[in-house]
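Quick one:
INPUT:
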């Protein structure tokens, strides 16, 4: 039964992707009928046709999305909804950029310290909603939304009031030191011309670690138990309050790590002083839903969303406006959210059929007696 359900989850996600692509094709037809077919082909094959550079860009876009998806998915697995990935990401980004600008004395270790600083900041930021949930029974969705905006405005304030960090002319943070940029680790040479760096390897390591923690350790089992049923885990002798806090703290560290890898990529990314939350955090929710919150599923879903993102830029060569690209990506992500609904509907129907079949067997046996 478990294998059947796993297959059903995969099929429901696949269905969501197909429907999203079909809706995207319809939008292309409405926008520019004469080039709709060619444009749809570009979505499917764009990065591949541009060789190593195109594939490298897919991995570059995938890096932060995989980590925010992993963050949301990890919380889902432990029965919690981490909608605070955007705030955790920007707080982690600030910690990384701060060390990246002011920590030049660290030399070649600067990027490592910057990444660690981001992880620690994310742990703290993620733990706050966990504390409210564990000790005051405050819904984590509400506290995470609040923490998103607190994080955004706090980072805006800290950057804009620090002359060492703020570029007043451009209204964003200054460039980090060269030693703060994550090294290519050979990927920059393998995918020459793209923005990829060793951050992709770090994201893969995070996926493996989270998979092992959730699926192969007692600690992971306790985290899932505490999230799904706090009272039952307490009855079993587990420290449910500690586990809830740890679940949110770990989720926060993953989103913060995404922020560090995004802003230390050496691609000219800066913390812009503006009133908008990081889109990567909300994309992480969709990636987690599409990947069914499984670490490997999140990895594949993140690569898919990144592939569509990279392919979208090539649509501009066919005279499709940027807004069309954004709509197509948004529709695909939107339909990804229905994967769980579709899966739940099918499982409910299957359960009813099994119950009826069981009742029929019982009735048949009673009739024989």
């Amino acid at each position: 039964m478990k294998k059947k359900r796993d297959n059903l989850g995969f099929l429901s996600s696949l269905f969501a992707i197909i429907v999203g692509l079909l809706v995207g094709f319809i939008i292309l037809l409405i926008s520019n009928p004469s080039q709709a077919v060619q444009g749809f082909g570009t979505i499917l094959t764009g990065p591949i046709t541009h060789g190593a550079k195109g594939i490298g860009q897919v991995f570059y876009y995938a890096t932060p999305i995989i980590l925010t998806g992993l963050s949301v998915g990890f919380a889902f697995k432990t029965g919690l909804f981490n909608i605070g990935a955007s705030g955790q990401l920007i707080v982690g980004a600030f910690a990384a950029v701060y060390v990246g600008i002011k920590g030049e004395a660290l030399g070649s270790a600067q990027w490592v310290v910057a990444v660690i600083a981001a992880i620690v900041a994310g742990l703290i930021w993620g733990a706050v909603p966990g504390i409210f949930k564990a000790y005051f029974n405050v819904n984590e969705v509400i506290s995470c939304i609040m923490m998103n905006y607190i994080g955004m405005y706090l980072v805006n304030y800290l950057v804009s009031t620090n002359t060492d960090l703020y570029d007043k002319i451009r209204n964003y943070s200054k460039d980090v030191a060269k030693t703060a940029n994550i090294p290519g680790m050979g990927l920059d040479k393998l995918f020459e011309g793209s923005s990829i760096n060793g951050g992709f390897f770090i994201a893969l390591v995070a996926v493996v670690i989270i998979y092992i923690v959730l699926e192969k350790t007692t600690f992971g089992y306790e985290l899932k138990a505490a999230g799904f049923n706090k009272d039952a885990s307490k009855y079993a002798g587990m420290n449910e309050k500690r586990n809830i806090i740890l679940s949110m703290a770990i989720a926060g560290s993953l989103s913060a790590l995404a922020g560090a890898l995004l802003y230390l990529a050496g691609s000219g990314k800066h913390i812009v002083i503006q009133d908008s939350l990081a889109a990567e955090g909300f994309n992480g929710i969709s990636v987690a839903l599409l990947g069914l919150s499984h670490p490997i599923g999140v990895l594949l879903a993140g690569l898919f969303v990144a592939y569509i993102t990279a392919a979208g830029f090539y649509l501009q060569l066919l005279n499709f406006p940027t807004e069309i690209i954004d709509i197509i990506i948004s529709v695909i992500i939107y339909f990804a959210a229905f994967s769980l609904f579709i899966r739940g509907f099918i499982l409910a129907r299957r359960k009813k059929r099994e119950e009826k079949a069981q009742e029929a067997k019982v009735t048949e046996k009673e009739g024989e007696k």
